[in-house]
Design brief:
The structure holds 2 protein chains of 2 kinds.
Chain A: E1 3-8, H1 12-22, E2 24-30, E3 36-40, E4 66-73, E5 76-79, E6 87-92, H2 94-108, H3 114-121, E7 123-128, H4 138-141, E8 152-156, E9 160-165, H5 168-175, H6 186-201, H7 212-218, H8 223-229, E10 248-254, E11 261-267, E12 277-278, E13 282-283, H9 288-300, H10 317-321, H11 329-336, H12 344-352
Helix pairs in contact in A: 8-9
Chain B: H1 2-12, E1 18-23, H2 29-36, H3 38-41, E2 46-49, E3 63-69, H4 75-87, E4 88-94, H5 95-99, H6 102-110, H7 113-121, E5 143-145, H8 152-163, H9 175-181, H10 187-190, H11 207-210, H12 227-236, H13 241-249, H14 259-268
Helix pairs in contact in B: 12-13
The chains are: A alpha+beta, B alpha/beta.
Bound molecules: iron/sulfur cluster (4 copies).
One iron/sulfur cluster (SF4) binds near residues 236, 237, 292, 323 and 326 of chain A.
């Protein structure tokens, strides 16, 4: 059973010291007018409590961008021990907790990844409630409340935080300062429930996701993929920002010293042309249309693998960080479902004088030459 | 440092791999990067030839690795390049000029070579010039290490690989990846700046966007850049198509990459 507690917001400084007693604290920090990033912080005044989505999701703390995993020298090949530190990630919203849940599944499945697991085990995850903006659609993906292996989750109930305690580490931390926390009063339980009811009604982007995998299968040949894919820059912005994109590339880096070198793992993206290229220069997904469709499939349908999950948790990061405006997942799903929707490609068509549909049958301006003819 | 290495060079030449560093038409930026990092290379290689940095150089002798900067823009560049190629086991094109032709090639696209020559050196200039071209238009290039200037870490890694007879790994993923890894706010999205990061090869660590400026493509194109999509998106942001084209063209990328963009441009006008 989950235990709960409350503490006063104006005593956040003390709560912060408690977190620091566990390890180095990371929290969302504002980096530009619109953007945030999880960074190491020394004082609560640095925390951007208003942050919804950070540029990179918290996966970066466990699945590192660039990491030597083996080294070799005259004496043979050696495993590189993962670098770990005791750390607290503060301010993780429900979508990102769900994202980490998916990452956990992938990286703990056999054969487990010792680097990922070592860092995950040295980390305390402290969640924080949020109010959705127009790009949030976690509710549609069923990832809108805290799930998976978090330690503590804070809900904003006015002048207090309502704390859900979800792990032994979390409980130990709370019990180390018993006088600081209170048992929630009946009224506070009610405020907590009201908060989540209000939040549930606050989503402006939504679709029914029950039949999503089936619809993705049915619409595999939809014109939507050509229309959107032909605008795709193959810039790959959509995958590092995704809390569940777990793909990497492996490179051997020789050293100038004879017989020495490293095998390094680096983040990769299925949107890059080299990703599906194999010997003989054969490419399973040679064009941006193939790659975009594949990306959408992994996000909304899942692979034919043991996990088999749709891997989108509805955080809206890809929507916000796609320069071409084509990662508009909500509208793409609505379009595939045959419901009212607006896509970036519609505007272009109307302006170009086409009929505004994506039939692709005629030679009107709507059709983009090569792709449609 | 250099001269002592040279004097020992002769007796060590049998055992230690040799390198040569040459500059054709370029700004010497790559030569400077190599010079700056030579101390790290010297324990492992013998500098057989580096006319920019040392006075005594071997001519017409086989060399393991030849680094060549600059584009072929004059007849004597071509003569030298053919000689270098004939003597080198591995030929590494260093810098955008050598790999793509850089601004010289970009410039030659807009104006005739003759008018460029006259405007720069006067009507009676004795200089002979050719339309600027990258090394690969004339000789086999084993490794293309672009940059403006090149990244020192990549230079050392390329050398290390070649010393082990590995073909080096050089990223051709776009600048956007490095930009996202640094968690920069995207200047194309947030500020509508004409950032060419999506079509430009990474390696610089997204230097310009990190300082709030648009990437102007100095590293040359990434692998299979989506030029047409890039042009569409910049045009939608209000950039005039001529300006978009001149930005895309500036750093010497090959014409084939722009065929569809140009077709659309002609169709519109
Ligand atoms: S696909 Fe997009 S919205 Fe879904 S989890 Fe990934 S970044 Fe978030
Ligand atoms: S969407 Fe692409 S990059 Fe992301 S996890 Fe799937 S295959 Fe990998
Ligand atoms: S979908 Fe958008 S973010 Fe992803 S590669 Fe294409 S243009 Fe870039
Ligand atoms: S600022 Fe430029 S390089 Fe960085 S993500 Fe945006 S488009 Fe790419």
């Amino acid at each position: 059973m989950e235990r709960t507690a409350t503490f006063k917001k104006d005593q956040f400084e003390q709560f912060f010291c408690l977190l620091k007693s566990f390890g180095k604290v990371f929290a969302p920090v504002r980096v530009s007018e619109k953007s945030f990033s999880f960074k190491s912080i020394e004082s609560p005044s640095q925390i951007a409590f208003e942050a919804l989505r950070t540029i990179l999701p918290p996966k970066k703390f466990f699945f590192q961008q660039h990491e030597p995993i083996l080294s070799y020298d005259e004496n043979g090949i050696h495993e590189v021990k993962p670098e770990t530190q005791q750390q607290v990630i503060f301010g993780v919203h429900p979508c990102d907790l769900a994202g980490l849940g998916i990452m956990d599944k992938v990286y703990t499945a056999s054969p487990p990844d010792p680097h990922y697991i070592a860092r995950r085990q040295a980390t305390m995850l402290v969640g924080l409630s949020c109010m959705p903006d127009k790009h949030c659609f976690c509710k549609s993906m069923g990832t809108d409340s805290p799930t998976s292996d978090y330690d503590l989750f804070l809900t904003d109930i006015g002048d207090k935080y309502f704390v859900q305690i979800h792990s032994a580490n979390g409980l130990n931390l709370i019990e180390s300062m018993p006088d600081f926390f209170s048992r929630p009063e009946a009224q506070e339980d009610q405020t907590f429930k009201d908060f989540w009811t209000t939040r549930d009604k606050a989503f402006s982007s939504h679709f029914e996701s029950e039949n999503l995998p089936a619809i993705m299968d049915m619409e595999w040949n939809s014109q939507v993929w050509d229309d959107l894919g032909n605008r795709c820059l193959s810039c790959g912005n959509c995958t590092p920002v995704c809390p569940t994109c777990y793909c990497f590339d492996m490179v051997d880096v020789a050293s100038l010293h004879a017989n020495r070198g490293e095998r390094v793992r680096e983040w990769d993206s299925c949107q890059f042309v080299g990703f599906a290229k194999v010997a003989g220069d054969t490419n399973f997904r040679p064009g941006p249309v193939d790659r975009l469709k594949f990306w959408y499939r992994h996000k909304l349908h899942g692979f034919e693998d043991p996990h088999g999950l749709p891997t989108c948790v509805g955080c809206g990061r890809c929507t916000e960080s796609c320069p071409a405006g084509i990662d508009d997942i909500v509208n793409v799903v609505l379009r595939l479902q045959g419901k009212p929707s607006i896509l970036v490609t519609d505007k272009k068509k109307t302006q170009a004088g086409g009929c505004g549909t994506s039939c692709g049958d005629c030679q009107c301006d709507t059709a983009d030459g090569d792709q449609h003819a | 440092m250099l001269s002592s290495n040279m004097s020992k060079g002769q007796e060590r030449s049998q055992t230690i791999p040799s390198i040569a560093v040459h500059g054709l038409t370029g700004c010497a930026g790559e030569l400077l990067v190599i010079l700056e990092n030579l101390e790290q290379l010297i324990p492992y290689v013998r500098v057989a030839s580096f006319p920019f940095a040392q006075s005594s150089n071997e001519e017409d002798r086989p060399v393991d690795i030849a680094f060549v900067e600059g584009s072929v823009s004059q007849p004597h560049d071509l003569e030298r390049l053919l000689k270098i190629r004939a003597q080198a086991r591995w030929l590494v094109a260093v810098g955008n000029c050598a790999v793509w032709g850089c601004v010289q090639k970009g410039g030659c696209r807009n104006q005739s070579t003759v008018s460029l020559l006259h405007e720069t050196y006067g009507e009676d200039s004795p200089i002979e010039c050719l339309p600027a071209t990258p090394l690969q238009d004339h000789v086999r290039v084993d490794v293309k290490l672009s940059g403006c200037p090149i990244n020192a870490t990549q230079l050392l890694a390329v050398t290390a690989s070649l010393l082990r007879d590995h073909l080096p790994y050089i990223t051709s993923k776009p600048v956007c990846l490095e930009c996202k890894l640094r968690e920069n706010a995207c200047v194309l999205i947030e500020q509508n700046l004409p950032c060419l990061g999506p079509v430009t090869a990474g390696g610089c660590g997204a230097l310009c966007p990190t300082y709030g400026a648009a990437c102007y493509g100095c590293w040359g194109p990434c692998e299979q850049p989506q030029m047409e999509a890039m042009a569409t998106i910049l045009e939608e942001k209000g950039y005039d198509m001529q300006e978009v084209m001149s930005r895309l063209f500036a750093f010497g990328a090959p014409d084939e990459l722009f065929e569809r963009v140009k077709k659309n441009l002609t169709a519109k006008s």
